[in-house]
Amino acid sequence: MQTPIPYEIAALLMGGTMCAFMALYFSMDSKGTKSPKRFLAGFLFIYGLTFIDNFWETSDLIFQYPRLAGLMVPSFFLLGPFLYFYIRDMCDPESYKLDRKRYRHFIMPVIAVVLMMTFYSFPDTLKFSLLMEEEDLPETGYFLIGVLGVVLTQIMLPVQILYYLVKSYRIIRRHFTTLKQFFANVEDHKLDWLRVLIIMLSIQWLLYAFDQLFGWSDALSEPIGTITTLVDVGIIYFLSFKGLRHDAVLREEESLQRQLDTIADQQHPKTEPETETTRETPQPAKYAKSALSDADSERILHKLQQALELDQLYKDNMLSLRSLSDHTRISPNYISQVINQNLNCNFFDFINKFRVRAAQEKLVPKGDEKISVLDVAHEVGFNSKSTFNTAFKRYTGLTPTQYRKQQQSSA
């Protein structure tokens, strides 16, 4: 048996209490049945059960009451689905559908209960012998089936959690790609904290998987246990803080995405005249039913370029597909289609090309005038120097500083 560690027990109690409180809060704060917070509440509640399970072991309660062994394990199979659907609905709340496809994600706890049913029926004396790793254990079929169920469950749990961590990360990456269809600056709209959460949970997964499959040595078991407990508490506080700050994702994105998805049913732009005939030029499947001809497409592109060059809309660091649509009186659907088809890029790249072009002119000093790279970045519409450097190097092959030095040396 392990000697109880006061500070580790305190951390477990603190983490479990925080989970219970925040799960209750997010559950009560959920607005309607489509709120991602319902899944966040579920995730926090189950995460709280992991603290209780660890508390039983750390405080030696599990040895005093062997019937507690493995009692919480089936519920842990809900962690992955709750996390995945929380992130998915944060990035696209319209995806929420409580249908059979979603129910199948919650079948693993039932399977785990079935696998561990024989183990649960073991008498306390037998469970105690297992926990103490005694050598004189029975070799009956009944005992072996119970142990096999526990082993299979211990293998399935880390595999299932890894599966949902990967799926969740892919959702975040896809969300970032979608943002570029709508915004010229994505820093304020990215859900980077979800990516940080995935990384933190992945580290915990690695530690947990190693412990379940191989186990730690006696020298490492205690410090690793303390570290994982503290990281778990950190995850809960981080997730709770971010969950309080972020309601369901950007409504502007949702509206625009729905418009893009239904473009086939919207045949005319806001003020663009009806096309005479639709060219027979093959179109991508996404725009196959669009009424936009090549001539109209070129005309819209010219109008967009004029708005950016003459009105210098690219200088607006809050420029979005919606605001460009409002300025030009062209449907956002057609703006997106023209940019995607004619220029083979997204809205983000389209605007940043104008910004980089303008920055190239400003980086070359005129007389005694000297402007810092950061000032240039802000003046042409970038929100940060790092984003400016990345975009500038992507289109020119040089950083802004390198470009300035090159121009000065060749002058």
UniProtKB/TrEMBL annotation:
Entries under InterPro entries matching the protein: Homeodomain-like_sf (IPR009057), HTH_AraC (IPR018060), HTH_AraC-typ_CS (IPR018062), Tscrpt_reg_AraC-type_HTH (IPR020449)
Listed SUPFAM superfamilies: Homeodomain-like (SSF46689)
Pfam families: HTH_18 (PF12833)
Lineage, opening ranks: Bacteria, Pseudomonadati, Pseudomonadota, Alphaproteobacteria, Emcibacterales
A GO term, aspect molecular function: DNA-binding transcription factor activity
Membrane-spanning parts: 6-27, 39-56, 68-86, 106-122, 142-166, 193-211, 223-241
Protein name as annotated: HTH araC/xylS-type domain-containing protein
Every HTH araC/xylS-type domain range: 298-406
Chain spans, region Disordered: 261-285
This protein's UniProt keywords: DNA-binding, Membrane, Transcription, Transcription regulation, Transmembrane, Transmembrane helix
Biased composition (Basic and acidic residues): 267-279
Keyword check for Magnesium: no
